Every structure is written in structure tokens, then in C-alpha cells.
Amino acid sequence: MGETRKTTLHTLETAILGKSALLIIDTQNDFVEGGSLAVQGGKSIVPTINKLLSLPGFALRIATKDFHPPDHISFARTHGKEEFADIEIHPPEDLAPDEHDRDTLGPLKQTLWPVHCVQGTPGESLAPGLNVDALDAVVHKGTHKGVESYSAFIDPWGLCPTGLDGILKEGRVDKKSRASGDGSEVEKTQADEGEERVPVKDVFIVGLASDFCVKFTAMDAVREGYEYRTWVITDATKAIKPDEIDKHWEEMKSKGIVLVTVDEVVQKLG
Ligand SMILES: [Zn+2]
User: Quick one: where's region Disordered (predicted)?
Assistant: First the structure.
């Protein structure tokens, strides 16, 4: 299904040691057991992710957080509607003030979720046991109340880049670059050691959920303008709907994303 990229698929043999990034998607309290939008088995991947975090082969280790204001557009509560209903949403006027722009960007289908990952609440914290000391940065997404972002790079309207692409292209986290404002907030968690860095070309993606934010992040990573060589480490992810995950894997593969296992990555980058 879908067309395969014309370029040769990257393999683990082509991953560049010391110049790869590990992206840990939305491994937060609200997305693991006990959370408001729990993914079955979410907690079980934390030790696996810690094992990956300990590998010497990664230049950057970055966690992402869904990080919503209390009246976020993706919450059923915000609209007074039932959870998991679908609605149409439009670009917010403060970010797209021109009516013509808003029409061009168009409405999007939005599934309405239970309230989750509200800024400053325990639900948005990284899941217990995750080795946060190993992280170079935490990137926030969905920070504007009118914009949803499954991808850790940017929302579908292109209004709120998260800053992730900049970090990867820099190959480092700049101590002074605690950017702020709509969607571009980057939280620095570890001092820069001042070592020489090069742009990251290879990204390895893990976390939650494989059929939503992991998938959308991976699909963005390979598209025009980003064009990272992208791997998803399938056994370090969990799906909201495991029964349907195969079709998502196929879709990712058709875009040139390579699926690998933890063992394969440990062998190569360990
Ligand atoms: Zn969310």
C-alpha cells in the first residue's frame, strides 16, 4: 500500500553513531495507567526507554510533552460535548488573524479527548521511573489553547513550531535558548558541556501512543523540510488501539520510516 520512496531505505547500518537523536514522545502520567487518557501497557515501556536512554550512541535525548491549557481545543469539556466525538476546528484568530488565511488553512477534524496533560498538573509530568536526568531537553506541544499538535515538530496548520527541529538541526541544546511564547517553548534540563555538535540526521522515536503522536511525529520527521532518516522502535511504544496498529505501521513504512526493535538498536548503538 502507498508508494515506496525512490531513495534506498536507510538501515541501522547507516545510522551515524553519536549523531542520532532519541525522541521520547509524550510518556506522561495521563497517558499511562492511572492517567485520564491511559494507553494500555504505557508504564511497561518505561524501563525499555531507560535502557535506550543509557546507550552511548545518541547525541541528543529529547522528551516531548503534551502540554495543554485547561480550556484546550482538543478537550470534550471545552466544547460541552461527549468524549471521543469528532468535530471540526478552525485556526485561532490570534495566530491567523486574516480571514483569508484561515480559509486557506481550512478546518480540521478533531477527536475530542478527556481532559489530559494540563499545564502544571500531575497529569503532564513525565511518567514515574523515566530517567529524566538523562534528558537533554523537554519539548512542549499543544501549548496554545486553539491549536492541537500530535506531531512533536509542528501542528497541521503550521502555526506553532515546537522548537524540536531547531534543536536537531543545531545538534545541541543551547543554554540560552529557552524560547517562549506560542508553542515554541523549550525547557532545558541539563547543562551543555560545550562539546562540538553536528546536525542530527537520524531520529529514533519511542513512546506514546504509536497510533497517534509517535506516528504523526515520525511522518513529519520524513517530510519535506525535515527529511530526517527516521526509525520507530516499535517495542518501545504502545498503541491506543493495538488491534489497528498494523495499518499504521504500513502507512509509516510507505513514507520511508524504518521499523526496528530495541534489541536491534542496542546492538547497533550500544
Ligand atoms: Zn493532547
Answer: 173-194
CA-closest candidate to residue 90, choices 16, 147, 152: 147
CB 164 within 8 A of CB 228: no
**193 CA to middle of ligand 1, Å?**
33
**Mind listing the domains of the chain with CATH numbers?**
17-70+116-240+248-262 (3.40.50.850)
Q: Which pLDDT belongs to residue 17?
A: 65
The DSSP line for 100-152 is: HHHHHH--EEEEPBPS--BTTSGGGSBPTT--GGG-SEEEEES-STT---SSS
Task: Please list all protein residues whose beta carbon sits less than 5 angstroms from ligand 1, which is an ion.
Answer: 66, 142
Query: How far, in Å, CA of 202 to CA of 207, rounded?
Result: 17
Strand partners, 139: 64, 186
| Residue pair 7/199 in contact by the 8 Å Cβ criterion | no
What is the value of pTM for the model shown?
Answer: 0.88
Give yes or no for a cis peptide into 152 (omega within 30° of 0). Answer: no
How much distance in Å is there from the Cα of 124 to the middle of ligand 1?
Answer: 10
Cβ–Cβ < 8 Å for 60, 76: no
**Residues annotated catalytic, as ranges:** 26, 141, 213
Ligand 1: centre distance to CA 16 (Å): 32
Distance of CA 199 to the CA centre of its chain: 19
Predicted pLDDT of residue 9 = 66
Show the low-confidence residues of the chain (pLDDT under 70). 1-9, 16-17, 173-197
